[in-house]
Amino acid sequence: MQLRPESLAAQLRKGIKPLITLHGDEPLLVQEAADAVRAAARAAGCEEREVFNVAGAHFDWSGVLGAAQEMSLFASGKLVEIRIPSGKPGKDGSEALQRYAARPVEGVITLVLLPRLDGSTLKSAWFAALDSAGWQVRIDPVPRAALPAWIAQRLSAQQQRVADGPDGERALAYFCDRVEGNLLAAHQEIQKLALLHPPGVLSADDIESAILDVARFDIRQLCAAVWEGQVARALRMLDGLRAEGETAVGVHWQLSNDLRDLARVRAAMDNGRPLPLALSEARLFGPRQALIERAVPRYAGDELQALLGDAAICDGVAKGLRRADWPDDAWDAVRRLVLRIVQAGRSGRAAQRRPLALQG
Question: Is 50 helix (H, G, I), strand (E, B) or coil?
Fold first, then answer.
């Protein structure tokens, strides 16, 4: 049974299941969910805890299978933690987990910790066995659009809040810009505000003087900002990735890959394919499909072909081939490509808003 992360605490207060699986790649939220499960297990009488870290293809699963049977003489119950950092238990592990999930033992609560899982793993027999035996909670990163509310909720929990109206919104936006992509650091900065200021309203100056710039980005976040037309955010992310040691070639590759997929979908639509079929034929699924689906109406086929030409030039610059009308620096070339993509998308949005009689 799948639970939403925000409902886990309420479910634990009603009673704990014998097997709980947490999977996701947001360390803070995974840690908090795991701590909530451990606390509920202790409240249910699990005074003993045994941890298994599954590493490598030759992990001995017999210890895991036997752990539930070996109850301590001094504890009324046991919490068994199975941590699989790779998310791939292997053939032996798959069989062991299915057997383990099929035979729950009274007094034993099992917590399975996994990273973010791909679609094929979510459909695997071993994951289905874990799901049917208890709760599974998928923990995703907090998206940028939801981050202000997340910060406000955490501040409220420590009896603090920002001012109402535009001043408070600007303060939260400033906070988000400094911690985006680094939720653990955001949590620490929120705790710091509790130490620096008493309960009540925090001014914009309070936040700006206290919050460090600890934002962390990945290339997919940058691409999402580009295709959503958020130019200032995209350029800030580009600078952040460069400072963190990412390569211009890696950033360019992902942008170009998105461009090719977008052009493929646009061409299929121009040939009469409906959007869902065009996306399916391009083998786009999940968040990537949603991103391309939102972007494709803003670009015409000829614009995308021109952008693909720009991407080819940028690729050459990134690999040391100079072009007279392009910057010599690879990062400056990627920056120009980002600006051209955003500009083309904004032109498309303007055309969509223009009255029909003025188009053409």
Answer: strand
